Amino acid sequence: MTQFLPLTCPLNSNVFLLYQVALGVLLVGALLPLVAWRNNRLAGVLGAATALLGSGIGLAGAGLALLDGGVTTGQLEWSSLGLNLCLRLDGLAAFFLVPIFLLVFVGALYATGYLHFSDGSLQGARHWFCYNLLATSMTLVVGAGDSLLFLIAWELMSLSSFLLVTFDLADEAAKRAGWIYLVATHLGTAFLFYLFFEEYRLAGSTEFSAFTVLGNLPVAGAVLFFLLALLGFGTKAGLFPLHSWLPEAHAAAPSHVSALMSGVMIKTAIYAFLRIITFLPQLPPWCGLLAAGLGIVGALTGIALASMQNDLKRSLAYSTVENIGLIFMGLGLWLYCRGRGLEMAGTLLLAGALVHVWNHALFKSLLFFGAGSLLHATGTRELSRMGGLLRRMPVTGLLLLVGGGAIAALPPLNGLISEWLLYLGLLQAGQGSVGGQAFLFMFFAIMLAMVGAMVLLTMTRIIGIGLLGEPRTPESFAARESGLAMLGAMFLVAIGCLAVGLLPGRVVALLAAPLAVLAKGMTGPEPAALPFGPAWSLAGLCFLLLVVVLVASRYYHRLADQKITTWGCGFVKPSPRMSYTAGAYGQLAQETVYCGCLRPVVTGERKAELFPAAWQWLTNLVDPLLARGFTPLFARITALAATGRGIQSGQLSLYFTYFFVVTILLLGWAIFS
Amino acid sequence: MFGSLIFHLLVILGLSPLLAGIIARVKAKVGGRQGQPLLQLYWDLAKLFRKRLVISSTTTWLFRAGPVVGVAVPLLASLLLPFGPLAAPLSFSGDLILFIYLLGLARFFTVLAALDTGSSFEGMGAAREATFAILVEPTIFVVFIILARLAGDFSLNEMFVPVKAGFHSPAGIAVSLAILCLFIVLLAENCRIPFDDPNTHLELTMIHEVMILDHSGPDLGLILYGAAMKLMLSAVLIADLLRPATGSPLLDTLAFLVILLLLAMVVGLVESAMARLRMIRVPQLLIGTTLLSFFALILLLR
C-alpha cells in the first residue's frame, strides 16, 4: 500500500508523484524485459523504452523539486512484512537526482546503439534487467527516508552494477575486476552497517527524520560517525586510498555502464556522506582537513596514474578518482572552514564541490561514451592501437574534444565553473586567515593548479594519441562513425557541458536548494562575488563563435592548398609505427615529475651485445596501492586464516565431536553461571 | 575605458614583434655580429601572410585551429591585465583564474595541433610542453597568490600595481622574489634559453620550435605572432610591478613602455650569457623556481 503523506513542508505534490511514477516505471522496466527473455530485440525495446520513459519523468520531477527546494516525505507501508519504509525528497536529494535521471536517460539512449546481442544469448533481458535495476536502486538510495530502505537500495545498487561489470561472461579480466569490486564494495558496506546500526541504537528509529537527535552527540561520537561514513562511503566513491577497485571495474564494464557508474553511481556515496553530515553536530576542524587531505592526495595520484595508462577507459577511470578527490577536497575544506568561522569561503567551497558533482557527471559520461564509440569502431581500448580517428569519426571526435576540454576546465566549458568556485573559496579562505592556516589554503590552491596542468597532459594525450595522427592498426584505419543513437546521447551531454559553462549563474542559483539542507542560514555564494552574470555568457559565446568562425573559414580555405606527407626528417614515407605513442607521451612526466612509487613495473632487460638481438620489454602499470598495499595485506590474511583451516578436516566424526564438546561446555556454563 | 582598450590592442598587436627583434639584436651585438634589423619579425610576418600553405595530408581541422587559438587567447588575456597606468578593459574579482585557464586553452590547442601531424618529433615537443606546464603553473599561481594577498583583491587589475611599500620591506622582498619567479616563468613559457633555444635546428632538443615544424605560410605567421604576443604578456606582468608610480599618466605610460623594452634586452643578455640546459635539468630548474616562490609566500605570511 502506498500512500502519500505530506508531512513537513508543502512541496508541490506533483513532484513526489512524478518521483514515485519514475521509480515504478524503472522497476517495471527491470522486470518487463525478463518476460521477453527469449527475444533479445523485444527485451531491448522494452528495457530501453521504460528506462527512457522512467528517467524522463523522474528528470522532470527532480528538476521541479530542485526549483522548489522544499521537503516532502512519503510513507511506503508494507504491512504484510511489518516494514514501514519511508521515502523522502528534499533539496539535497533533488540535486543529486537530476544527474542520475539525466544519465540514466542518455545511457539508455546510447545503449540502444551500442549493444549488439547474438540471437538466443539471453543477453538482452539480462542487460536491461540489471540496467533498470541499477537505475531504480540509485534513485531509491537518494530518495530513501530511512536507513533500512537505504541499505536495501545500496545493496541492490552494488549487486546490479556488479552484474553489469561482469556482463561479458567470456571476459576473464572483467570477472576479476568484478570480484575486486564486489569485495571492495562489501567491505565498505560493512562500515555502513555499523554506522546505521549505531545510529538506530541512539535514535531509536531507522527513519532519517529521527536522526536529528544525533545533533546532541558528544564530539567523540560525532567523530566516530564521521570516520565510519568517510570509510564506508569513501570506498564506494573511490576516495584515495580506497579507490583501487574503481579503475578495474569502470574499465571492464560496458561503456554506457562505465558512464553511469563513474558519472552518478559513485556520487550517491557523496550524497550519503553529506546526508550523514547533516545529522551530526559541528565536527572538529581536523575531520574536514582529513577528508580534504585524502582528497587532494587522491586527485594528484589519480591524475598521475591516468596520464600513464595505455588503456583509454582505465585512464578515464583514474581521472574519476582525481575528480572525486577534488570533490572531497571541497567538502572537507567546507567542514574545516565551518569550524574556523570562515562561513563565506566555506560556502564557496561547498558550492564548488556540489557543482563539480554535476559537471563530472556530464563530462565524464561524455568521455566514457566517446571511449565506447572508439572501442566499438576499432575493437580496442588501447590508445597506442588507435590514431587517425578524428578524420574517420569527425562528430565523435569533436564531442570527445568538448569533453576533454571541459574536464581540463578550459573556458568556456563547464569544468571551469566548479574549479572557479573551488579556487575562489580557497583564495578567500586564505585571504581571511593568517600564518599557517593561510598557507594551508594556499597550498591546496596551488596543488589544484598542478592537478589542472596534469589533467591537460592527460586529455591532450587521450585526444592527441587516440584521435590524431595516422591510424596505427588496420582496424583503426577502417573505423566508421557511430550510429545516430550513440551520437545523440553524446550530443545531449555535450550540450549540457556547454550550457553549464555559458550559464553558470543559473546553475549556482540552483544551489540554494541543497545549501538550505547543508549549510543552515546560507543561501549560496554571493552572486556579486562571482562574475557569472550575462556578461560572462555573452563573452563566452562571442569567443566560441569567433574561434569557430575563424577555424571554419580557414579550414575551408585549405581545400585549395598543397598537401604533402608529414615532414619526418628526411623519411619520404613515414609509417604510423614511427608516430609518437601513448607511453612515450607520458614518459617525460613519469620520469621527471611523478613520484617513483607510481612508475610502472618494467620487466625485460636489454643485453649489451655487439649486434642487437631480439629483446622484450614489458611495462606493467599496476595500481600501486592494490599491488603494494591491498594484495599483500589480503594474502597475509589468507595465510593467517589458513592456519586455522586444520579444524575443518571434513570427517563427520570429528564434527560430531565438536558438537559434543560445545554442548558439554554450554551445559557447564549454564550450570555454573 | 575605450582609450585603454585601444592602447591595449596597439601595444599587444603592434609592439609584440618588436620585443623579439630587440632580443635577437642584443644577442647579435653581444656575439659580435651586426644582427638582423629590429623590425625583422614584422617583415617575416608580412611575408608569411602572403605565402601559400603546404600542409600534411594527415592533419585535420585541429591543425588549423591551433594557430587561430594561439593568437585569439593572448589577445583576450591581455585585456585582463593593466598596461602600466591604464586599467584593464576587462576586470572582475577572480579574473586571475580565467587568465591561467585561458593560457591553458592556448596550450591545449597548440599541443593538439602539433600531435595532429602524427610525427614523433612534434609528439616529443608536445609532451614536453604539456609536462613542463605541470611545473610552471604552480609557480604562476603562487606568484598570483602573493600579489593577491598584498593587494587584498582577486583581480589582476588590482594585483599588478607598483610596489607601494618599497623593495626593502618584507612585502617588497616577497614581491622581488615573485618578480624573479615571473622572469624565469617568462623564459620557460616563451621557450627562451636556458629552457629552449628558439634558433636551434636539432629537433630532438626543442620544445616550441619542434611543435610547429609542419606549419607553413599564414599558419606559421599566426603562430609566430601568437608567440610574440605571449612574450609581451609575460613581460607586461613584470613591467607592471617594476614601473615607477609618479602620478602622471603620460610619464607612467612611457616608463612602462621603456621597462618593456629593457626587459627584452635583459632576456637577450641572459640568452647570450647562458647555454641551453640539458633537457633532464629543465624540470629541476622549474621545481627550484616553484620552491623559491613558496619561500616568498612564506616570507609574506610569516
Q: Could you name the key traits of this structure?
A:
heterodimer, A: 673 residues, mainly alpha, two-stranded antiparallel sheet, disordered N terminus, B: 302 residues, 11 helices, 1% strand, globular
Oligomer: heterodimer
- Provide the gyration radius of chain B in Å: 19 Å
Rg from alpha-carbon coordinates of chain A: 26 Å
Note the run of SSEs of chain B as H and E. HHEHHHHHHHHH
Helix content of chain A: 55-70%
Q: How are the strands ordered across the major sheet of chain A?
A: 1-2-3
Total DSSP E strands of chain B: 1
Helix content of chain B: 55-70%
Mean pLDDT across the residues of chain A is: 87
> Structural class, judged by helices and strands of chain A?
mainly alpha
The sequence of SSEs of chain A as H and E is EHHEEHHHHHHHHHHHHHHHHHHHEHEEHH
Largest interface: A-B, 81 and 72 residues
Major sheet of chain B: none
Number of helices of chain A: 24
Number of helices of chain B: 11
The domain count of chain B comes to 1
Sketch the major β-sheet of chain A: 3 strands, antiparallel
What integer is the average pLDDT of chain B?
89
Q: What fraction strand of chain B? A: under 5%
Give me the secondary-structure category of chain B: mainly alpha
Through-space gap between termini of chain A: 49 Å
